[in-house]
Amino acid sequence: MIDSHLHLQDPVLFDNLNAVLYDAREAGVDKMVVNGTTPDDWASVSDLAQSIPEVSAFYGLHPWYVNEYPDGWQESLRYILTKNPLAGVGEIGLDKWIPNRDWVRQQEAFLTQLGLAHELQRPATIHCLKAWGKLLECLDNS
Q1: Which of 140, 38, 61, 59 is nearest to 108 (CA)?
Q2: In the chain, pLDDT over 90 holds for what percent of residues?
Q3: Which of 27, 56, 89, 96 has the fewest Cβ atoms surrounding its Cβ within 10 A?
Q4: What residue spans define the domains of the chain?
Q5: What is the pLDDT of residue 107?
Q6: 52 contacts: CB under 8 Å, gap ≥ 6
Q7: pLDDT band at 67, cuts 50/70/90?
């Protein structure tokens, strides 16, 4: 069984990592997709993928943090994906549920990351809340 969406790097889970992994294995989970959310957690995601055989690393910029994206994030994302040829792109997406997030910047970041996933032939983990129409439009046009 594959757990296709987790954030083992989150302190809530990471602080109990051995118990979380034990429970997952007992439940029959033999593959885990750990999604990055900002450049700040990509190193932790890499460490998890290198130390836990069941973990696949995904690197991306989550739409909740669009207001905090650092300059040059596109190059950083390309670099880490190129350095990790088995990694996917995620967690990326669109979110209209959380207020005060730059909607235009979310769309630009999503399309950039989706394009990078396509270019590098990598899978992507997509987050979407209250933005299904725009998400489908972006997918249709990409």
Answers
A1: 61
A2: 84
A3: 27
A4: 2-141
A5: 95
A6: 8, 21, 32
A7: confident
End-to-end CA distance of the chain: 30
> Which residue has 């991306």 as its token pair?
60
* Chain centre to alpha carbon of residue 80: 13
Q: What is the pLDDT of residue 66?
A: 87
Please, are residues 60 and 66 in contact by the beta-carbon 8 Å criterion?
A: no
- The pLDDT tens digits of the residues spanning 36-57 come to 999 999 999 999 999 999 999 9
Pick the CATH number of 2-141 from 3.20.20.140, 3.40.50.2000, 3.40.50.880, 3.40.50.1370: 3.20.20.140
Q: What one-letter code names the amino acid at 140?
A: D
The amino acid occupying position 56 is: S
Q: Is the pTM of this model over 0.70?
A: yes
DSSP string covering 86-106? T-EEEEEEEESSSSS--HHHH
Contact partners, residue 74, CB within 8 Å, separation at least 6: 112, 116
Contact by Cβ (8 Å): 35, 21: no
User: Mean per-residue pLDDT for 13-22?
Assistant: 90
Residue 135 pLDDT > 90 = yes
